[in-house]
Amino acid sequence: MAQRLPASGAPAGIGGSATAHQPTGTLVRRLWREHLSRQKWRTGLALLCMSVAAMATAGNAWLLQPALDEVFLERDETMLVLVPLAIVGLALIKGVAGYAQEVLMAFVGQRIIADLQKAMFRHLMRADVAYFQGNTTGRLISRFTVDVHYLRGALEKALTGMAKDALTLVCLVLVMFYQDWRLALLGSVVLPATVLPILHFGRKMRRVSSRTQEHMGSLTTLLDQTFQGARHVKSYGMEAHETSRANQMIDGVFRLIYKTARIRSASRPIIELLASSAVAGVIFYGGSRVLAGTTTPGAFFSFIAALLMAYQPLKALSSINAELQNGLAAAERIFGLLDEPPAIVDRPGARPLQIGDGTIRFERVSFAYGNDGPVLHDLSFEASGGKTVALVGPSGSGKSTILNLIPRFFDVQSGSISIDGTDIRDATIASLRAAMALVSQEVVLFDDTVRANIAYGRPGASDAEVEEAARAAAAHEFILELPDGYATRVGEHGFRLSGGQRQRIAIARAMLKNAPILLLDEATSSLDVDSERQVQAALSRLMQGRTTLVIAHRLSTVTEADLIHVVDQGRIAESGTHASLLARRGIYARLHAMQFAPGDAAGREATLATAGT
């Protein structure tokens, strides 16, 4: 049956709501505690290089005083040589320090991004199936692409730029106070005024950036679904509809990015105006002091140079703050993903599952997806060890849900499932799933070779073992006919293979795993009659001595099952062998009659009557 999604929707973390609106300091401290602190020596060395570069910048401003006073006014020939050499020396020092800090911070930024991507992937690999059903592929991928892009920019540019510009600003302010503390106080009046618009625009940038990243995730989802379903889009003539949906999302992203640009641009003229006002006041007051003879022209122009150079990093801090807010919005969403705990975990004290004969028992199991109505109602049955048990019934009756509960893709709300008397929740998840091989109607192949896809069932298997499994699944012959045989890449989702070929590769994978419990969910649904006959024979051999649960809509594939359970509306409605269920004249007999009756209504009625219904 088609798997239903949890009604609860996306977990809070994926959309960022679990960590939304955290203060900037909180996020920065977490980045430092969990990631930056691991690169302490590189970060410290980078800060040292930034300090050296900042002092070199301030040194250029300070050199204007001896250049004017001692070279041009006092005509000192020694200083005429020393000042240019000092300027070149400072430029060399600044260049080396700047290069070193950029290289160091690039390494730190990329290392943090790589660590976060690894952590997100590890976390998602531990996440339960419901998490993936509650979050679209596009939204998850956007954490690794869009959000990482913004966070990389914040780490490499914003944090680095803030440190470098702040240090440069401090050094230049010290030069200003050294040259004339009265003028320095006047020039510093504007600094608190520039902080307010920076903070105001930063808060707005954070909100807009978060919405932009969410829209980018939705756009990624749409693109992924549309491209994957291109055949269906074209077969139903929905190109215009999908184009309209994409246009709406792209326009939404455009409006948000444009709004971001407006906010970023609005801060610059305000700071320019404040800076210009300060410079104008300093020139008027400082010029008066020079004319009055209370300060020298060199000291005044050195001060002016330091002031003008100081407002450059000040303006840069405004622009960098916007970049920082983009990165912090991304960090919120990434941490939201990492903070979402998996629902299916090992219980304290869980032990590896010890398989005896492999008897599976459901005892009064009830289950519902999220807040939806119950899918299974007080369901009980047993699959004896080494036996083949089939689950049949109408679509939507709960058959696939039963199968999904055994490997703990979901946990029951009430009741219990046990294997050889051990509640599966008391066993470690790894040992539980290692004891099972699953083949479903939704075949998943990876963009790798045929050999690698089969060996996925048992990593490290030899080529001979892979080929043996392929022979048993009736796949060896068609594999040899592929361009590169077992080394042929199957393409994304196995698109280079037919549906039946993909299914046989999946069956070969399960055969190679050789697990004591087999879960077959419509395992032969995509095979033609001849291939189905071959695979059924192979499966019959594989089932011997193993506990096997089979879901089938084709009743012809389960006639030899040891026991057949008819599932209807989440309950076991009937149980028995093929012959006894036909004789019972119940649901199974009606399903059998519908599948094997002639195409006309009269023939169907005749078959129903023959079946005793």
Description of the molecule:
The chain has 613 residues and is of the alpha/beta class. It has three domains: 14-339, ABC transporter transmembrane region fold, CATH 1.20.1560; 349-435 and 549-573, 3-Layer(aba) Sandwich (Rossmann fold); 577-613, no CATH class. 63% of the residues lie in helices and 9% in strands. The chain is built from 22 helices and ten strands. The chain has helices spanning 12-15, 24-34, 40-62, 64-73, 77-126, 129-134, 137-179, 181-188, 190-228, 230-235, 239-292, 297-339, 399-405, 429-434, 450-455, 463-472, 476-480, 499-513, 529-543, 578-584, 587-596, 601-610; strands at residues 360-368, 374-383, 388-392, 414-419, 422-423, 436-439, 517-521, 547-551, 563-568, 571-576. It has a six-stranded mixed beta sheet, with helices on both faces. It has a four-stranded antiparallel beta sheet with strand order 2-1-4-5, with helices on one face. β1 (360-368) and β2 (374-383) form a beta hairpin. α7 (137-179) runs antiparallel to α8 and α8 (181-188) runs antiparallel to α11 (239-292). The chain is elongated, with a radius of gyration of 35 Å. The two termini are 25 Å apart. Mean pLDDT is 78; it is low at 1-20 and 599-613.
